[in-house]
Design brief:
Oligomer: single chain
CATH architecture of the largest domain: 3-Layer(aba) Sandwich
CATH superfamily of the largest domain: Aldehyde Dehydrogenase, Chain A, domain 1
Strand order of the largest sheet: 13-14-15-12-11-16-17
Number of strands: 19
Strand content: 15-25%
Number of domains: 2
Bound molecules: nicotinamide-adenine-dinucleotide
Radius of gyration: 23 Å
CATH topology of the largest domain: Aldehyde Dehydrogenase, Chain A, domain 1
Length: 467
């Protein structure tokens, strides 16, 4: 197994970028210094003074930006696969969702409202943009998660400084230059570099909203940093979503969908299925159905047309996946499929289905964020619901069965932001997206995400003075 160089190793003032399918450096990006942020945030502030004024021009520019993203789709998708690892078809889907988000928010306008509470006063609620927004995103969906931040923020009249992960800076830099063909200067600035670049951005006094997607510990650090300037904070953090199968589930019918809900993007999805709870009576049938898929799925470089599952993005993440699986195996679990790295160059781990996993094993209690899925038996539904709700996370969850009313009643008991029935991780652009407990603070998505980038401004005017 070749030893991968550090994904974000400093080479002078450049960040080395690794292709996770080979484990080799293939390009580099600027390793920007935290001190550079002062000038960039200042320019974002000055750009905001103009950008906030004209909603019609904003709508036009954002629609043009969506067209530009689509026109650059081939280049964006290939670069995304190269640095992130996902199969090319998934990269194309990510680019398409980036453009769709821009279009969805482009025409959105806040609703002004007058309060009529019997006083002889007109109280008008209007909405104002905030100023420069700092966005910090992880490496699993660099473009899509960036768009989930810049599309509502810019549509609301803010400007943004966006920092991708040092593991995936390139597609985001390309996206930034594509968007620059449609947006006024300094409305969106992409910065790349290693820590403490993100920490400095999150705590920058010129930033009015920090919107972060990433892990729980970093989210906490970001919140602490933003407290210095009392900037608004939105945190979209980790998940440990459970899929609860009911005893009337048709295992054969749902197995494909359930498998891909756990393994899409090589399991590196915040709201992937990370634990399966199956009634004890059908547990071995579920394990067998999932293991059969894990053994036959085509694993390889995302650039290969046949690949269905790519590599894990980076070396520390691969180590985390390996640790979670090995610990479970050492604790008495059995790998019905996988359970080891693949003998390929790059960061490949065999799609793994674990059974006989002790419930206190880290692969159950923590977020493995990779191609490893524990399947646990349950005896009563109460027990399953309690286990599903029993980690510190609360992002999503799903219930799978034939009787949809019964499934919905169980879904209603899941303590999370989004629950699906016979699905998982499918989001509407128009829905609020949020997590409870360690999974986050604030709401993204739909009008909620849009208003999260605005502040109310109320004008009271005596009614008798109106002509
Ligand atoms: P991470 O927290 O390590 O990094 C996220 C981003 O924060 C990166 O850009 C990183 O460079 C930056 N960063 C690191 N230290 C920082 C600091 N001290 N201050 C400011 N920024 C800092 O997360 P990751 O490993 O890149 O991503 C995986 C995590 O993201 C998982 O936990 C996953 O569940 C979560 N995630 C959540 C969602 C969601 O919507 N809830 C979506 C995708 C991923």
């Amino acid at each position: 197994m070749p030893i991968s160089p550090p994904a974000s190793g400093r080479r002078g003032e450049r960040l080395a970028v690794v292709d996770p399918a080979t484990g080799l450096v293939f390009d580099e990006a600027p390793d920007q210094r935290p001190e550079e942020l002062d000038a960039l945030v200042d320019r974002a502030h000055r750009a905001w003074l103009g950008w906030r004024l004209d909603p019609v021009a904003r709508t036009g520019a954002l629609r043009e930006a969506a067209d530009a993203v689509e026109a650059a789709g081939d280049d964006l998708a290939r670069l995304l696969t190269r640095e992130q690892g996902k199969p090319l078809a998934e990269s194309y889907a990510e680019v398409a969702r980036t453009a769709a988000r821009l279009r969805y928010f482009a025409g959105m306008a806040p609703r002004t409202r007058r309060i009529d509470d019997g006083r002889p006063v007109d109280s008008d609620i209007r909405w104002r943009s905030l100023g420069p927004v700092a966005a910090i995103v992880p490496w699993n969906f660099p473009l899509q998660l960036a768009a989930a931040k810049f599309a509502p923020a810019l549509a609301a009249g803010n400007t943004m400084v966006l920092k991708p992960s040092p593991y995936t800076p390139l597609a985001t830099r390309l996206l930034g230059s594509v968007l620059a063909t449609a947006l006024p200067k300094d409305v969106l600035t992409v910065v790349t570099g290693r820590e403490p670049l993100g920490a400095r951005l999150a705590s920058h006094p010129g930033v009015r909203h920090v919107t972060f997607t990433g892990s729980v510990p970093t989210g906490r650090a970001v919140a602490r940093g933003a407290a210095a300037s009392l900037a608004r904070v939105t945190l979209e953090l980790g998940g440990n979503d459970a899929a609860v199968l009911l005893d009337d589930v048709d295992v054969h019918a749902i197995a494909d969908k359930l498998f891909w809900a756990a393994f899409r993007n090589c399991g590196q999805v915040c709201m992937a299925v990370k634990r399966v709870y199956a009634p004890a009576r059908i547990h071995s049938e579920v394990v067998e159905a999932l293991a059969q898929r894990a053994k036959t799925v085509v694993v390889g470089s995302g650039l290969e047309p046949d690949s269905q599952l790519g590599p894990v993005n980076n070396v520390p993440q691969l180590a985390r996946v390996e640790r979670c699986a090995s610990q479970a195996l050492a604790d008495g679990a059995r790998a019905a499929a996988g359970g080891h790295r693949l003998d390929l160059p790059g960061h490949f781990y065999a799609p793994t289905i674990l059974t006989d996993v002790p419930p206190e094993s880290p692969v159950v209690t923590e977020e493995q964020f990779g191609p490893v899925l524990p399947v646990l038996p349950y005896r009563s539904l109460d027990e399953a619901v309690e286990a599903a709700n029993g980690t510190g996370f609360g992002l999503g969850g799903s219930v799978w069965g034939t009787d949809l009313d019964r499934a919905e009643a169980v879904a209603d008991r899941l303590d999370c932001g989004t629950a699906w029935i016979n699905h998982h991780a499918e989001l509407s652009l128009a829905q609020p997206f949020s997590g409870v407990r360690n999974s986050g603070v604030g709401v993204a998505g739909g009008p909620w995400g849009f208003y999260g980038n605005l502040r109310p401004f109320v004008v009271h005017r005596p009614r008798e003075e109106r002509r």
